[in-house]
């Protein structure tokens, strides 16, 4: 698939936003819990948040329904299995698997952004972020995510 410079730049902007949003207090735990409980894709949730917060756009149903990236899912499962082994060599291997898992997440985000369809403009970024999140997650944002949405949308 050919990506224009614009989509590559947007993919990078989406990745940087994801790292910053994910680092907000309680957000990582809330997103992982939701992913583990419902099988929803964290990247789709983050994409909906990015669209609304940064671009002021609502998410398409196709983007919200994006399946989790198989490679990242498999690598995450392997990394979690390795967590129980206390051997230093195994823990070093687990850190390397995590680095590959993160690379797989980044590829998944770029694919999602490239194939998500045409979003539409939103009147209110915070409301759109909550609606996009609910579309991708299947439920409203947990408290930590709602607080992060508020922090990010008040910056603009």
Structure description:
The protein is mainly α. Helices cover 74% and strands 3% of the residues. It has helices spanning 5-22, 27-38, 42-55, 61-64, 70-82, 88-115, 125-137, 143-155, and strands at 57-58, 120-121. It has a two-stranded antiparallel sheet with strand order 1-2. The longest helix is centred in the middle third of the chain and has 28 residues, at 88-115. The N and C termini lie far apart (33 Å).
CA-atom Rg in angstroms: 16 Å
- Largest pleated sheet: 2 strands, antiparallel
Class by alpha and beta content: mainly alpha
User: Helix count?
Assistant: 8
What is the quaternary state of this protein?
single chain
Could you give the count of β-strands? 2
* Element-level helix/strand string: HHHEHHHEHH
Characterize the overall form: globular
Low-confidence stretches: 1-5
Strand order of the largest sheet: 1-2
Strand content: under 5%
Query: N- to C-terminal separation?
Result: 33 Å
Helix content range: over 70%
Summary keywords:
two-stranded antiparallel sheet, 8 helices, mainly alpha, 2 strands, 156 residues
